[in-house]
């Protein structure tokens, strides 16, 4: 019995090593998808992606078990079966949380070994029941260093359950990922658990966007600039922060937006980055999908500016001003990620692209020599 178990463990280790090497060679090209979006799962062009995340399920605020209602069941089953049947197939990851979830629920869950266990067991169980290849935690955001330390414990215990489950069932190990702040140190007050991430997490998705938006309507700003000549709100700063706290570069994925943010200019004649504004512009509270941005630009004969100093794009017409990424800025960013030997990139969110323009560009640049 012991020899058989050892042979199984060795085979599992070899399999995981081979799989990890294959993933490292092609890189991670991920994207989040959500139900009731404009693009159904059946229409996702999987040749531009390696992993698609289902966004989102939530933990029950009392039991901390993952809540799956009757309406979720057919969508979850269709999501995994459809993407596995695609040519090429992609890996599917169940994301838990999201920007609109209650961060205090995650804080309370992570603060106690019993509630962490209930959450972990449920997450692994749901992922297996619906045939996902992994689980993703989108906790936005741990509020203090105690939360961050508890997050490290959560990762350690979660990985132990994943390893145990795979060893006992003979199934492939579930991936364990996390959506995280754009920088490894958050506003100088707390730092993510780098050691736990290196040891227990498959990779983290750094949300390198939303540097400026409807929360600051006094002036325009970049949504996701690679550089910030006047401060630290930039993708390069965020990614370097992750590396500086000791997270291995192959564990870090660069976030890219498939959306834009808009403002209403105070003076249509003053329209650069940092121009005075009086409120949000077109869109839902100033938010637009990339598809909407492209259509609005064409409809209004907008002026489109590629800003080399920040590696970002903005457009304007009349008093309307929009910041976003296009093919040019995405290409530069993906090359930057490759130069830093990062593990790949991900998009929020797959349904917001237009005719796969940005998805295709990023994939082609990443795959090029």
UniProtKB/TrEMBL annotation:
It comes from the Eukaryota. The keyword Hydrolase applies. SMART domains: Glyco_18 (SM00636). The keyword Cytoplasm does not apply. Pfam families: Glyco_hydro_18. Keywords: Glycoprotein, Glycosidase, Hydrolase, Signal. Residues 27-369 form the GH18 domain. GO terms for biological process: carbohydrate metabolic process; chitin catabolic process. Residues 1-25 form the signal peptide. One of its GO terms (molecular function) is chitinase activity. One of its GO terms (cellular component) is extracellular region. Belongs to the glycosyl hydrolase 18 family. Chitinase class V subfamily. This is GH18 domain-containing protein.
């Amino acid at each position: 019995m012991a020899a058989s178990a050892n042979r199984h463990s060795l085979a599992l280790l070899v399999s995981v090593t081979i799989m990890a090497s294959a993933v490292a060679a092609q890189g991670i090209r991920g994207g989040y998808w959500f139900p009731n979006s404009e693009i159904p799962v059946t229409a996702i062009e999987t040749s531009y992606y390696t992993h698609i995340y289902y966004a989102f399920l939530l933990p029950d605020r009392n039991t901390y078990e993952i809540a799956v209602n009757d309406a979720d069941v057919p969508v979850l089953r269709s999501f995994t079966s459809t993407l596995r049947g695609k040519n090429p197939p992609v890996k599917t990851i169940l994301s838990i949380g999201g920007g609109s979830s209650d961060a205090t629920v995650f804080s309370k869950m992570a603060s106690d070994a019993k509630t962490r266990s209930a959450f972990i067991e449920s997450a692994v169980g749901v992922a297996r029941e619906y045939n996902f290849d992994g689980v993703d935690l989108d906790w936005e955001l741990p509020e203090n260093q105690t939360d961050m330390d508890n997050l490290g414990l959560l990762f350690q215990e979660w990985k132990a359950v994943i390893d145990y489950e795979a060893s006992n069932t003979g199934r492939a190990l579930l991936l364990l990922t996390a959506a995280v702040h754009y920088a490894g140190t958050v506003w100088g007050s707390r730092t993510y658990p780098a050691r736990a991430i290196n040891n227990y997490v498959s990779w983290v998705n750094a949300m390198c966007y939303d540097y400026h938006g409807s929360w600051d309507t006094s002036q325009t700003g970049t949504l996701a600039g690679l550089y910030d000549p006047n401060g630290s709100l930039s993708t390069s700063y965020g990614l370097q922060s992750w590396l500086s706290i000791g997270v291995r570069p192959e564990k870090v994925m660069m976030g890219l937006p498939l959306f834009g943010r808009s403002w209403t200019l105070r003076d249509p004649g003053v329209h650069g980055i940092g121009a005075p504004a009086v409120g949000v512009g077109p869109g839902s509270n100033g938010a637009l999908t990339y598809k909407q941005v492209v259509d609005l630009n064409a409809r209004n004969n907008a002026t489109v500016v590629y800003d080399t100093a920040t590696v970002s794009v903005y457009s304007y017409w009349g008093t309307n001003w929009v910041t976003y990424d296009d093919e040019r800025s995405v290409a530069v960013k993906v090359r930057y990620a490759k130069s830093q030997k990062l593990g790949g990139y991900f998009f929020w969110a797959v349904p917001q692209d237009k005719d796969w323009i940005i998805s295709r560009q990023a994939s082609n640049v990443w795959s090029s020599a």
